[in-house]
Protein 1
Amino acid sequence: MVDQRFRAYGIAAVVFTLDRFTKWIVETRVSFSDTYKVIPGFFDIVRSENRGVAFGIFNDSSSELRTMALVVLSLAAVVGIAFMLRKAQHMDAASLWALSLILGGAAGNVFDRILRGRVTDFLELYAGNYHWPTFNVADSAIVIASGLLVIDLLRPKHKVANVP
């Protein structure tokens, strides 16, 4: 049987690699003025950069400490999740997958922040004039993981009898 920690870190590595690969493709083949319509009226591939956090929060900040603070907080999240995954053998599947996806996604975005001080986003969802902020594979993994954690929290738990 595969060690659950190995599986968890493997999932995170796949997310990180897929995130880096897709960002590399966009950074080398898509200009800031390009728009590739994948599903017209709903989904496009574009290229944008985010110096802030989710939904562009702090993107327009002129503080020189912004990038350093975001890197430090992101690294703390990566280390914290990696630490939590040391107990992977005691986790249910939903928690294992969720923490693994968060680890891979957070590592992908912090890698960008350390190297360039910004994160490349390229997935754009919209309906009419309503646009979801542009995101990337790492962001997608973190959102999926958050959903898994919510489902896991809402799922009824079986109580184990006290056995002396």
Protein 2
Amino acid sequence: MRVVHFELNVRNVEKTKEFYEKVFKWKIEKWEGPMEYWLIMTGDEKDPGIDGGLGRVDSESPSIVNTIDVKNIDEVIKEIETRGGKIVNPKHAVPGVGWLAYFKDPEGLLFGIMQADPNAS
């Protein structure tokens, strides 16, 4: 299971978008899905690295969340809870993409887990 995506969760999307586009030449485009979200392409797909997303938070502190690809999200959720982790945002559909949940590890670090499923809704 590998880290396959990162998210930048910020209060000012426009300012953040401009910063990363200008400094690192990242391409950032509005996602066509049902929620306010931007896709970040960090470089050529042939080069090492991962792409990410940009989302808006209103009252929380800005954060970076890495998302791990899993084959069976339900099994991984059980394992997280058995090993001392805590699910902080339960499994939910990202329509047309898959199933997503967020957890904190025993030290409090926040991660996402994603099971690909184009039929998720």
